[in-house]
Design a protein that fits this description.
single chain; 442 residues; TIM Barrel; 2 domains; nine-stranded mixed β-sheet; eight-stranded parallel barrel; 21 strands; globular
């Protein structure tokens, strides 16, 4: 058994007497047989552990902390209800995510709406539902929101998203706090200050404070130290110029999680230490009252809890170059490797105890050369019919599923104490046609 590989699987991962991978007390081979593959399995215990670890880490360091789950990582009605019951808020970015949150009975005041191009309809929905915060991303949006709130005779609760020009040293596709980003109001150009002036002058918005989110899968906590320092300095300047003191500062999310056994990543305690100590020190320096601190972890809460199961099919040996192993999923259910080179660890779920002796490349079944899930995976020699289990698939895989090649999007089951519960059924071929406008008697 490779305990190093198991370390990136859910915390309940174990091996039974048949050499099968167990998650949440359930045999993953039996789950694959019962529900089919590709199949996404989520472990309740790991979800709960991650949520509570973040809550505890901040509670002992900075009591006035609000934690919002970043729903873009993965969202369903059941997951929204789970996060609600754990006492978390919900960070949403679209009318669709708001619709799911409402269907889940999520309290509107614990919802924060993001997005760089919110439509007027989305903003109206947020105002009518009464979301707790609307994060304004640009000056044009602020103008639109002021007009809409005035027309609705409402007061929009606003945070301004600031772009602090901090490079978090992650993949450029997921770096969002640099100056040249589609997100946020740059401090360096004066745009952020313009937004403060405008928001304070408008009676139809209430400015609660500032928001930043510098990127995703960030290993370097110094980037957060720099960001907090810059943001509090900006807040102090705005206080001096406009007599405005923020009551809330949101630091977003984005800290890294382990995808491979050797990955070194910050713990929730590490993150809480850096954010709270830096914020407290900066506020002391400028004699500013301590604001409410908000954070928005997404990947950090759900990534490790998710495991993707696939069935091994054909293989292809290229002498002296590579052996390809083909699975029945790939980029339609996990586009992250093709999109920005994400890396994963995997096991043969029905032969976990067999030594890994062969280097292979795991490729999907879709019509793209980029449809490679794992390059150079060390596994027992894979055979047709094996069940491949890929770790840390809980974030940004289900939320980016597609029907490329008319693939059926997978089922999701949640496991706990040896019981498996279906949270999302597998699509059917009839589902592929449900939006087409035509008559079909086939």
């Amino acid at each position: 058994m490779n305990s190093r590989i198991l370390s990136v699987f859910p915390s309940t991962a174990a091996v039974n007497r048949h050499g099968h991978l167990l998650i949440g007390g359930c045999d993953t081979v039996e789950l694959a047989q019962q529900f089919g593959t590709p199949l996404y399995v989520f472990d309740v215990a790991t979800l709960r552990e991650q949520c509570r670890a973040h809550v505890a880490a901040f509670a002992v360091r900075y009591a006035d902390t609000c934690i919002y789950y970043a729903a873009k990582a993965w969202l369903s009605v059941k997951l929204a209800q789970f996060m609600r019951d754990e006492g978390l808020g919900l960070d949403v970015v679209s009318a669709g995510e708001m619709y799911v949150a409402r269907a889940a009975g999520f309290p509107a005041q614990r919802v924060c709406l993001h997005g760089n191009n919110k439509s007027a309809d989305e903003l109206v929905t947020a105002l009518e539902w009464g979301v707790g915060r609307i994060v304004v991303d640009n000056l044009n949006e602020l103008d639109t929101l002021v007009d809409l709130a005035t027309h609705k005779q409402a007061v929009a609760p606003v945070l301004l998203r600031i772009a602090p020009s901090v490079d978090p040293h992650t993949h450029r596709y997921i770096a969002t706090g640099v100056a040249d980003s589609k997100f946020g109001l740059p401090m360096a150009t004066g745009m952020a200050e313009q937004a403060v002036q405008h928001a304070l002058a408008a009676s139809s918005v209430k400015l609660y404070g500032y928001h930043v989110h510098i990127g995703s899968q960030i290993h370097d906590l110094d980037a957060y130290r720099r960001t907090v320092g810059l943001l509090v300095t900006f807040a102090a300047q705005m206080r001096q110029r406009y007599n405005y003191t923020p009551v809330e500062i949101s630091m977003g999310g984005g800290w890294a999680v382990r995808y491979l056994p050797d990955d070194e990543v910050p713990t929730p305690d590490d993150v809480a230490d850096v954010l709270t100590k830096t914020l407290q020190a900066a506020c002391r320096e400028y004699a500013m009252p301590l604001p409410t601190l908000s954070i928005e972890p997404g990947r950090a809460l759900v990534a490790r809890a998710g495991v993707a199961l696939y069935t091994v099919g054909a293989s292809k040996d290229i002498a002296g170059i590579r052996r390809y192993i083909f699975i029945d999923g790939g980029m339609a259910d996990n586009i992250r490797p093709a999109l920005y080179g994400a890396r994963y660890a995997a096991l043969i779920a029905n032969r976990v105890s067999t030594p890994a002796s062969e280097r292979v490349t795991i490729a999907g079944r879709y019509c793209e050369s980029a449809d490679v899930l794992i390059t150079d995976a060390m596994l027992p020699p894979p055979q047709r019919g094996d069940i491949l289990a890929v770790a840390t698939c809980g974030a940004y895989a289900p939320s980016m599923w597609s029907n490329y090649n008319m693939a059926l999007r997978p089922a999701i089951v949640v496991v706990a104490d040896g019981q498996a519960t279906l949270w999302r059924r597998r699509e059917t071929y009839e589902d592929l046609l449900r939006c087409d406008v035509f008559r079909c008697d086939v």
